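User: I'm putting together a teaching handout on how multi-component assemblies are represented. Below are the sequence lines for each component of a complex, exactly as they appear in our records. Could you produce the 3D structure of the whole assembly as structure tokens, so the students can see both representations side by side? Please keep the chain order the same as the input.
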Amino acid sequence: MKQLSENIKRMPVDTWNRLDVNRSEIKLYSHDDTNDINVRNTDSEYRHNIEHNFNEFNLNKKNDDFFLNDEVRKFIDENRNHCRYFRIPKNHSENKPVTIEFHVKNDSSLIDDIIIEAEEGSSSTFIIKYTSDKGENIHHSGRVRIFADKNSDVKIIRAQLMDKETTHNDVISGIGEDGAHIHVILAEMGAAKAVSSCNIVLNGKGSSANLDILYMGDGTRVVDISSRVEHRGKKTLSNMRIRGVLSGQSRKILRDTIDFISGSGGSKGREEENVLMMDPGVLNLSVPVLLCAEDDVEGEHAASSGRPDDNMMFYMMSRGLSEQEAKKMLVEAAFSAILSKVPDMSLQNEILGLLKKSIE
Amino acid sequence: MEKRKTHLDDINRDIYDIRDADTNNYKTDTGLTPEIVREISQKKNEPDWMLELRLKSLEIYNRTPLPTWGPSLDELDMNQIVTYVRPNTDMKDNWNEVPGYIKDTFERLGIPQAERDSLAGVGAQYDSEVVYHNIKKSLLKQGVVYTDMETAVRDYEDIVRKLFMKLVPPTDHKFAALHGAVWSGGSFVYVPEGVRLDIPLQSYFRLNAPGAGQFEHTLIVVEKGAKLHFIEGCSAPKYNMLNLHAGCVELYVAEGATLRYSTIENWSKNMMNLNTKRALVEKNGTIEWISGTFGSHVTMLYPTSVLKGEGAKSEYTGISFASKGQNLDTGTKVIHAAPNTSSTVSSRSIAKNGGVSVYRSSVDISQEAVGSKSSIICESLMMDNSSRTDTIPAMNIRNNQVDIGHEAKIGRISDEAVFYLMTRGIPEEEAKAMIVRGFAEPVAKELPLEYAVEMNRLINLELEGTIG
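Assistant: Of course. Below is the structure of the complete assembly, with chains in the same order as your input.
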């Protein structure tokens, strides 16, 4: 097994070093034997409509995996042990979600590399789920690249539900051409240390992105997320919604950036984070960044943090709920707006189950 | 409706740009060596502990790297900067005794007039030394001290030795170390327990010598239940070589005391303004920062409030205006280190004509700071797309008994707002002027009237066509 330790850039522009947000340490582990990884997917349902293969990456398009450096890129290229390439043909609408579920067994490491190429006018949904055995010698490093051509619509749900002792590194990058829409839902629910990032470039006129992030921290877990939407084309739209629940001694760092490049006139971007802090020992670090080199834009961010509202708790308890039940209801409510966009009830319930368990 | 860009005039700098001949009494060589530091200390006839602090700071400076974040400081070459320039006069307490050319400069800037009209005391620094200090006699009787830092080192040594560069230690960053090594001038204010000053004190810093640095130190102690409003003004004429300002402000706000610290900074566009300001606030004390940043080539300035006592409060109201050749990186830091502390931040910035304005902040809530609240609002106005405006706030929260809210907006003047005002019968140009002035209003309303008028004059609007 090979290992790579890298101190990677996590902010589009640096700020005070004492805050410890500019960079993060990540560890990647290679593993040759893919028998230790169970993969369940829904190939049979889409194989006639969507081109897919496991090895060929003859792609002449370039993405912008902003949060990776050359060493990490090279390590993934050389050591990936599960590759997928999907091409959704022009004007094809795939009604059912394409689902891939990875289960990583003990003492093994998954490095998955997934490319989604959505051709003009196509529409598709992908659900990628990660679970694992229990144990600290389980590692996941993954990369997803999305190419959304003109007027295509790609939705990707990436749910990380691994064991609490594992390590998880993850990077999603997407690029949208004229009129394309990319919707990413990230759920970071497991791993001892989860380092996750998402970079979407709205390259074409009128392209848009929704980025919904759910995270949960409990015990001594660390959740480290960087997200960025780059508005390059004219009249592009982005909306980031982030909901988190932290309990125990967990630590969370979130850096969410909207970057208006010169020439992105008429664009609008909004980011919003709400964090529920259930216990006094949590660490909650947020850096919502707005970068702007264009005058004809509207950028907004809002963030709020605190414990469950006393008045709301009092009201619910006065209606006969126990404190624990009331708290569970509040965290469920915090996640519900995003969770309802996940087109898989069992996955919704699985995420909710983990969330409720974390505050017991 | 045809869209045309709103034109916002540059700040009229005529009165600031008048330069006097460089007729100093003494200045050090360029660059920074232990010999130069010893020379400054010797000229000031300082006690040994101060010389030791200077030399230790120089060591720290030499081994501390430049910041790896924020605007580029590559243009700054310390070997070209003169760190100490003594003007051709001693400090006076009678305005008429100040040499004519210095007096003329300050009078053009309206300083003695302001003293006569609305101030309780005035200090004026020209290059590295304070040339004039005066305070109303009634305040002297109440025990208020307002003098230059050199006098304070001699006459109030106990207080100065206990507090000087303790809140901003030389290890804080490279320019705090530089300041520790070569500081000169600045003001010392002591407001005894229970004394509440209803009218402000003001210090004005003027850097005239080309290629020089100004490193004034301001130390203010506001004792229990006391109140003070201190105003700081800064300007320099424009030269073709870089000047450097690395001042340091240390404010000690005791239990139940209130200190308002207002700054209107209008350095010329060849100035690197790398200033450090910090306040330590005890139980139920209040620090209010009012900050207007208009000048300089590069600014890195983040007034910091350390809320040490239970119930301590911090308010920050800031505006910056970046135009061509300017990179103004400003904001604030608040450290909530005790229960039930609160902070509010209201920041506005305008960028035009290729200027870069950055709002950078951090709010730290410690585990002990239960029941604390913080509300942060920052808004940026882009006047054209050759400019840049960034917002980089951080919130570092370490307990859950808190209420933290943050909002930020970036954009241009709203077409809808102009349209609405026009439907109410207000002419288009007046509508736009109202909107931009309204944008600056949160800062203007916190300033004494004369300064609010001055600020409005600084943001002089010349509008044409519709907003675009």
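A couple of points students might notice: Chain A touches chain B at residues 13-17, 19, 21-22, 246, 260, 262-263, 265, 277-307 (CB under 8 Å). Chain A has one domain: 2-309.
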